[in-house]
């Protein structure tokens, strides 16, 4: 095993690179044949099915196989088929229930069964084995009037082109609201269940909703932007604080994270239930930040007069068509991310060890990759950031430079490795977003002399 050594100032932030750092590509010590492939398949199955605390020991066995660099990409179909086979699956019928952890429920009545309930439509089209788009429609309403059937009717035009999923809030008779953290975690769990059951095109996952569902779709995409290609909040708003009809501030992360996610939203100035001020505020913020995708503004805001809390004169079909025309870019080279959700502490090619800050004040992370230079800036706090990389983001044949708040912290070679690819696949279950190298950028106490070892591998 060869290590890369480099010196840093005594008080510097240290980049621990969790993949092979070497000037030359690794050379396999033995031919990679059927015997090694079978051994790898068995260990991958063991790793995927294992309790997270037992996975590091299994990963050590996997590293001992010394998977050649040219086998990393070739092995990923096997990895994802293993993940799909091992995951919790949908009942696959129209009216579905899934058992959820009790911690997601706040009401004792619902804890007794701790089930999630949703309608599933359009699943027959998945029989061909071709990846399908996934459309999630969130119902409106409130206590004791939640109706996923109504959402399925509202967004039914999506079912001819997508697998349609229409969930109920967890506690429809009591405290259920889509923009609560436990409801968002339920939706993330539901998306995973559908991905384990049907071949889903992860670059074409959509979420939309009306009224309370509009609030929920703002929240889901705002806190998990890397999950969605496009979002359609209708007669809803991001979570904002009003005073005398004026917006004072918004919930951390619910708007900043939309840099790479398409969003189309509307409101009516005479809506008696959802003030238009929240949507106007969102429109102003996205204009202020200048968010674009492919050179075009990443959002559309429409105001409709005279519809109150209803739908546009031409219905919701045009919104569905607009959304389904969008695809996600899984490897954008520029990110804005304000982490807020501990149960899913990653977005695109960034992750954090813990969520920095508190509920009222979070850390904004701005990150960009340009010509193999990774520039990461954080505001207010110093989060423990890990950067995940692949061949779409960097050129592995050239040195990689990592800067933190303008100061260079790493300069060296990175080599793709199977163990990082497996870790990222199990973490995200997203075949369109696989990372093969990573660098953990953690603030550490001063070193004795500033010389640090980093790296590993063959």
Topology readout:
Elements (H helix, E strand, L loop, with lengths): L3 E4 L6 E4 L16 H16 L5 H10 L7 H15 L8 E5 L8 H4 L3 E7 L10 E7 L9 H7 L8 E5 L13 H17 L2 E11 L1 H12 L6 E5 L5 E4 L2 E5 L11 E6 L8 H14 L2 E2 L2 E2 L1 E5 L13 H8 L9 E4 L8 E2 L2 E3 L4 E2 L2 E2 L1 E7 L2 E7 L5 E5 L10 E5 L2 E6 L5 H11 L8 E6 L8 E4 L4
Parallel strand pairs: 5-6, 5-7, 7-8, 8-11, 11-14, 21-23
Antiparallel strand pairs: 1-26, 2-25, 3-4, 4-6, 9-10, 12-13, 15-20, 16-17, 17-22, 18-19, 20-21, 22-25, 23-24
Helix pairs in contact: 1-2, 1-3, 3-10
Estimated helix fraction: 10-25%
Q: Would you count the extended β strands for me?
A: 26
> Structural class of the helix and strand makeup?
alpha+beta
The first-level CATH class name of the largest domain: Alpha Beta
Q: Given the structure, what is the number of helices?
A: 10
CATH architecture classification of the largest domain: 3-Layer(aba) Sandwich
Low-confidence stretches: 1-24, 443-458
Describe the sheet with the most strands. Answer: 8 strands, mixed
Bulk shape: globular
Total tally of structural domains: 2
Distance N to C terminus: 5 Å
Mean pLDDT: 87
Spatial order of strands in the largest sheet = 3-4-6-5-7-8-11-14
The fourth-level CATH homologous superfamily of the largest domain is Alpha/Beta hydrolase fold, catalytic domain
CATH topology grouping of the largest domain: Rossmann fold
Strand content: 25-35%
Radius of gyration: 23 Å
């Amino acid at each position: 095993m060869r290590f890369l050594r480099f010196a840093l100032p005594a008080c510097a932030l240290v980049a621990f690179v969790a993949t092979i750092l070497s000037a030359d590509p690794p050379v396999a010590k033995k031919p990679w044949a059927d015997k090694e492939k079978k051994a790898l398949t068995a260990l991958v199955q063991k790793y995927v099915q294992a309790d997270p605390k037992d996975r590091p020991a299994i990963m050590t066995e996997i590293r001992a196989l010394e998977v050649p660099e040219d086998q990393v990409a070739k092995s990923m179909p096997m990895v994802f088929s293993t993940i799909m086979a091992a995951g919790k699956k949908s009942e696959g019928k129209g009216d579905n229930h899934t058992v959820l952890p009790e911690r997601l429920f706040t009401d004792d009545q619902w804890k007794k069964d701790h089930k999630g309930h949703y309608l599933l439509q359009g699943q027959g089209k998945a029989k061909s084995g071709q990846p399908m788009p996934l459309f999630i429609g969130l119902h409106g309403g409130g206590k004791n009037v939640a109706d996923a059937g109504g959402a399925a009717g509202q967004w039914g035009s999506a079912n001819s082109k997508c697998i349609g999923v229409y969930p109920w809030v967890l506690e429809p008779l009591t405290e259920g609201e889509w923009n609560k953290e436990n409801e968002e975690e339920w939706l993330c769990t539901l998306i995973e269940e559908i991905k384990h059951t049907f071949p889903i095109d992860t670059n074409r996952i959509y979420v939309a909703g009306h009224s309370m569902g509009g609030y929920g779709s703002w929240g889901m995409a705002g806190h998990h932007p890397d999950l969605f290609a496009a979002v359609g909040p209708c007669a809803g708003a991001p979570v904002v604080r009003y005073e005398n009809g004026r917006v004072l501030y918004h919930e951390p992360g619910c708007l900043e994270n939309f840099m790479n996610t398409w969003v189309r939203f509307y409101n009516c100035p005479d809506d008696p239930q959802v003030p238009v001020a929240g949507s106007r505020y969102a429109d102003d913020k996205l204009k202020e930040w200048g968010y674009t995708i492919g050179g075009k503004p990443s959002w559309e805001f429409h105001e409709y007069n005279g519809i109150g809390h209803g739908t546009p004169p031409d219905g919701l079909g045009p919104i569905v068509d607009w959304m389904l025309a969008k695809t996600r870019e899984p490897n954008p080279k520029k990110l804005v991310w304000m982490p807020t959700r501990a149960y899913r502490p990653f977005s695109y090619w960034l992750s954090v060890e813990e969520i920095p800050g508190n509920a009222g004040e979070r850390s904004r992370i701005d990150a960009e990759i340009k010509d193999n230079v990774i520039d990461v800036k954080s505001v207010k706090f110093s989060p423990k950031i890990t950067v995940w990389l692949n061949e779409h983001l960097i050129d592995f044949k050239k040195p990689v430079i990592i800067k933190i708040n303008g100061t260079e912290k790493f300069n060296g070679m990175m080599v793709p490795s199977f163990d990082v690819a497996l870790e990222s696949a199990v973490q995200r279950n997203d075949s369109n977003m696989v990372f093969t190298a990573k660098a953990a950028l953690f603030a550490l106490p001063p070193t004795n002399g500033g010389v640090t070892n980093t790296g590993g591998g063959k």
